Amino acid sequence: MTAVGELLDAARERTGIPSDNALAARLGIQRQLLSKARAGEKPLSDERIAQICALAKLDGPTWIAMIHAERATTATERALWRLMLDRMGAAAAVVALVALSLPSVGNAKTAQIQAVSEGLLTHSVYYVQAPEGGLARLLPRPLPLLRHGA
Length: 150
Hints:
Blueprint: H1 3-15, H2 20-27, H3 31-39, H4 46-56, H5 60-71, H6 75-101, H7 105-117
Helix pairs in contact: 1-4, 2-3, 4-5, 5-6
């Protein structure tokens, strides 16, 4: 199955739309556009892919990269789109890892309330205003770079 076919099937499944005809009607386009895209006769535009992804709450950039990688006419172009997919997957994995490692909002609030009740968060917050001329006046000047061989 092609990536476009997978996208259309995923969109229909996520939205509960029973057919490509009903999906086309929901998108406000002609059924033939989806039929030709599914058959590989006419590619979907990036805007249309984004519209489908928004309707089904799917990850648009990933689907666009998958479809472009499949459509690529040269090995270099295909490799570039695959690299983008790999990078997006790695970034998503990092975001998921960070999200899973952080306490939920409810737990964070509970921990804060407990810390206050136990006297752990009794310190005041102080704001310091930078002196006239800014912080640059207080910081040491950078040393000039040494020239090689000089």
